[in-house]
Amino acid sequence: MIRLENLTKLYGSFVAVDDITLTVERGELFAFLGPNGAGKTTTLRMIAGILRPNGGRVLIGDDDVHRNPLAAKQRLGFIPDRPFVYEKLTGAEFLRFVAGLYGQEGDAVERRIAELLEVFELMSWRDELVEAYSHGMRQKLIISSALIHRPACIVVDEPMVGLDPKAARLLKDIFRQFVGRGGTVLMSTHTLEVAEVMCDRIAIIQHGKIAACGTMDELRRQTAAGNVSLEELFLRLTGGVQARELAEVLGETS
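Request: output the structure for the sequence above.
Response:
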């Protein structure tokens, strides 16, 4: 379970995240959506412990990320939007290194590394330097590293970027199996069709505040939108450009 309580982040006088309270339950795949600059990535980085909030707190299970960071991070797997890997390590060495950060080593870790490399079709590359990996292969390696210590919660920012359709489908299946076994996934994505099909609940953030939160049916009731798609709900809540305005910008053709 991931719980945000009155979470706030300031950059000078600019309020990037404004008093957010949100709970993602065990066994839930939750989408966190918003336009660029709305506060999504800042929120995810506070959950991961990379940024310190100016107010409020983040709980992973019962552990406060900033008061008890080691215990909280043991429960968490984080997949950032711009992942970093050590290019002079092999794929297996990188996973071994990440496992070591969580105090895990030995035969159990080696079996886990082999299992993840096999699942993501990287086994034939396990002893190749990461500098030789394609972007998609690096993304799969980063996802594997987030799963290496068997976390209870996964936080992921734009998980499908760089993945081919087969790998993207595999990741969707992994997330659904993960929550089916009682795990928690909080996912930020700009691919609204993925969020609508995959996720149990959705929150939409705008100007650092939660504009709406719930299941698709609940979002439709909150916005009195009728039976519309998530894309239409998103545009209504975030002030997306409407067709008439777009025609004016582009100039009508005869």
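The longest strand covers residues 14-24.
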